[in-house]
Amino acid sequence: MHIIAKRSLRAFWERFPEAEEPLTRWHAVLDKAAPASFAELKALFGSADWVGGYVVFDIAGNKYRLVADVVFFSQRVFIKQVMTHAEYNRWKP
Q1: Is 64 helix (H, G, I), strand (E, B) or coil?
Q2: pLDDT digits (tens, 9 = 90+) for 41-58
Q3: Cβ atoms of residues 57 and 1 within 8 Å
Q4: DSSP letter at 80?
Q5: pTM of the prediction?
Q6: Rounded CA gap, 46 and 49, in Å?
Q7: Chain centroid to CA 13: how far?
Q8: What is the CA 23 to chain-centroid distance, rounded?
Q9: pLDDT digits (tens, 9 = 90+) for 20-48
Q10: According to DSSP H, which parts of 1-93 are helical?
Q11: Residue 22, pLDDT score
């Protein structure tokens, strides 16, 4: 899948350096994958959830959340926001 934009991940791990490794791992897995549906994506990332039209990924054992707009037919992932779990609790889709 084509992930747009990695700079969002970098900006987050500059604030939270311990997030770099799990976010890099998430990116590497999804970059090489080609899921055709949410079910196939969920098979790759068991903790992925569909929330308010977005896919929410738990990162680093639920310490962080990554919100993305996933377009399966074009194989694109638009990163909307990366947050701490506390920030996610205040997020409204």
Answers
A1: strand
A2: 999 999 999 999 999 999
A3: no
A4: E
A5: 0.93
A6: 8
A7: 13
A8: 8
A9: 999 999 999 999 999 999 999 999 999 99
A10: 6-15, 20-32, 38-44, 85-90
A11: 97
| Tokens coding 50 | 């569909």
Q: Which domains does the chain have, with CATH numbers?
A: 2-87 (3.30.2310.20)
Rounded Cα–Cα distance for residues 80 and 90 (Å): 15
For residue 16, pLDDT over 90 is answered with yes
Structural element, H or E, at residue 15 = helix 6-15
Cβ atoms of 70 and 37 within 8 Å: the answer is: no
23/8 Cα distance (integer angstroms): 10
- Phi/psi region, residue 43 (left: phi>0; alpha: psi -120 to 50; beta: rest), is alpha
Partners of 50 in the beta sheet?
Answer: 55
